[in-house]
Write a structure and sequence with these properties.
The complex is a heterodimer. Chain A is an alpha/beta fold. Among the domains of chain A are: about 120 residues, Rossmann fold (3-Layer(aba) Sandwich), CATH 3.40.50.300; about 35 residues, no CATH class. Chain A is built from 13 helices and ten strands. In chain A, β7, α8 and β8 form a beta-alpha-beta unit. Chain A is globular, with a radius of gyration of 20 Å. Chain B is an alpha/beta fold. Chain B folds into two domains: about 240 residues, Rossmann fold, CATH 3.40.50.300; about 30 residues, no CATH class. Helices cover about 40% and strands about 20% of the residues of chain B. Chain B is built from eleven helices and nine strands. In chain B, β8 and β9 form a beta hairpin. Classes of the chains: A alpha/beta, B alpha/beta. At the A-B interface, α7, α8, α12 and α13 of A face α6, α10 and α11 of B.
């Protein structure tokens, strides 16, 4: 049975007229790394909130259909039970930082403390998580004294340390430098190899193509396309609908019109582009 | 309006030396992108331009003004600053009031305020949203409100701190259009960005910072090809620059038009 199973999920926030998610059906296997792409307003963050239980438990509103993660049904679980399986890193790390802790180390320990993890277990787990995301040198800094990208790493680390079965990431690299971005994709890939299921909202197609197993393209609250990264990310449908595409794809598409690109398949990554453009 | 920075140093109260001697000159009307790893000091640097931070050592000149001798409110007439996170700067009950706040505070005449507000709203495609509360808008549109509220102040210098963060392709194009329009009007634009492709497509001059210092500063074409130096500050060259390198093209390519042009010549050889 699928690890995530969404059946006909439709959701409307309180006070809004149209549903943000419309009839979403999605099955994800354990250990799969799914990337979610789509224009602003497509429902990507709402999908994250739904998987993380914030919808409907925190935001209220009207939900229909069923949301199942690890064999449990969201509407029949409490948020407290739900967060033991699922971790969400927010789009804006500033909204996630507790404000109750003086140092990055304490901030990352916060979730474990709340879950009643014994003290002697907390320290090594925090240290391990800090080194995983390469922020051990920030351990004694105040979370609020960090740059945007550093805060984002702290937000991610404070979820990874919980070792959730399902890791939900809402644009986790949006404020990160390019090489930092690639490293985060690498860490997330490693988590998935270790059996963690990952759903990650991202705009950076080049890295999605190299690291994710499957891509879901959302638009207007519906799944427009779903498939393997290199097939889906070069689809004409994406560029026609205002999705971001990699420069390799758009340049090869233009080159094809001018007879400079011969292959049927368009590239998403540097290697694919270099291969196709090789004289 | 010229910006002149000489050997600027700044240390946070925590002891972190965020700027360790930065010197640079930005000529009036220049469009500059600042790139570099997280924590390199990019935001710390630009916050000296409008007095949010004050130099511990070294000097800053905005035009002939030393920011230390002017209030932040006064400096706001010269330097507009769009924060990385729009939620840190928006506070009005509707978009119209928000965008009007800046120019009104600068004491412009009513007609000029109306004209500036209309122009800023139309440039950011917000004209139909003037009555909406900014917090009822999506983060994308809130970003545009933040842009509009700063553009409306009509300052000779405009700073954008990571304008494309979390924005989709359509909105990145809108932001690029706003920057192009400011260039046409002769404004100085300084943009901090991690989006190196956006940087390559919209800026002529690039500054790469690392660990509180300037690592590289020059024309985009020269800077963006320096893969090994950029890597020191966690920056990859733009996608098409990397592709050009990998294919052995002689010149550094920055965008699609340049790539196809140079590739064609290369292939025909």
């Amino acid at each position: 049975m699928a690890f995530i199973n969404l059946q006909n999920v439709t959701y409307k926030y309180p006070l809004t007229k149209t549903p943000v998610l419309q009839n979403i059906n999605l099955q994800v296997n354990e250990g799969e790394f799914i990337a979610v792409v789509g224009p602003n307003g497509a429902g990507k963050s709402t999908l994250c909130y739904t998987l993380a239980g914030f919808v409907p438990h925190f935001f209220k509103g009207e939900i229909s259909g069923s949301v199942e993660v690890a064999g449990r049904e969201s509407s029949k679980s409490t948020l407290d039970e739900w967060v033991r399986n699922v971790g969400l890193a927010f789009q804006n790390p500033f909204n996630q930082i507790s404000g109750a802790k003086y140092t990055v180390f304490e901030e990352i320990a916060f979730g474990l403390e709340n879950n009643g993890v014994p003290r002697e277990e907390i320290k090594p787990r925090v240290e391990e998580a800090l080194s995983l995301t390469d922020i051990s040198d920030l351990a004694d800094r105040s979370p609020y004294s960090l740059s945007g990208g550093q805060q984002q790493r702290v937000a991610l680390t404070s979820i990874l340390v919980m070792r959730p079965k399902l890791l939900v990431l809402d644009e986790p690299t949006s404020q990160m430098d390019p090489i930092g971005t690639r490293e985060v994709f690498g860490v997330v890939r490693k988590m998935a190899e270790g059996g963690m299921t990952v759903v990650m909202v991202e705009h950076k197609m080049e890295w999605i193509a190299q690291f994710a197993d499957r891509v879901i393209a959302l638009q207007d609250g519906k799944i427009l396309l779903e498939g393997k990264p290199n097939e889906l990310l070069t689809s004409d449908l994406l560029s026609e609908n205002g999705f971001g595409i990699s420069r390799y794809t758009s340049t090869a598409r233009e080159a094809k019109k001018q007879g400079l690109w011969k292959s049927e398949k368009l590239p998403v990554t540097l290697d694919e582009a270099a291969e196709g453009f090789k004289p | 309006m010229k910006i002149e920075i000489r050997d600027l140093r700044f240390t946070y109260p925590t002891g972190l030396e965020a700027l360790q001697g930065v010197s640079l000159v930005v000529e009036p009307g220049e469009q500059v992108a600042i790139v570099g790893q997280n924590g390199a000091g990019k935001t710390t640097l630009v916050r000296h331009f409008n007095g949010l931070l004050q130099a511990a050592a070294g000097s800053v000149l905005i035009g002939e003004w030393d920011p230390k001798k002017y209030s932040v409110a006064k400096l706001a007439s010269r330097v507009g600053y769009v924060f990385q996170n729009p939620d840190e700067q928006l506070f009005s009950k509707d978009v119209g009031t928000e965008v009007k706040f800046g120019p009104r505070n600068l004491g412009y005449a009513k007609e000029k305020i109306d004209e500036l507000v209309q122009r800023a709203l139309s440039l950011t495609e917000l004209s139909d949203k003037t009555e909406t509360n900014p917090y009822d808008l999506s983060p994308t549109w809130r970003k545009m409100v933040a842009l509009a509220s700063v553009i409306a102040m009509d300052t000779p210098i405009v700073i954008f701190d990571e304008p494309t963060t979390g924005q989709d392709a359509l909105n990145v194009a809108r932001i690029a259009h706003v920057i192009a329009e400011l260039r046409r009007e002769g404004k100085t634009v300084i943009t901090i960005t991690h989006d190196i492709d956006f940087c390559a497509e919209n800026f002529e001059r690039v500054i790469a910072m690392s660990k509180g210092r300037i690592l590289l500063d020059g024309p985009a074409r020269e800077i963006l090809g320096q893969e090994h130096i950029l890597a020191q500050t966690y920056v990859d060259p733009p996608q098409l620059t990397r592709l050009g390198k990998k294919l052995g093209l002689k010149e550094t390519v920055r965008n699609q038009v340049e790539f196809l042009e140079i590739y064609k010549n290369h292939r025909n050889k």
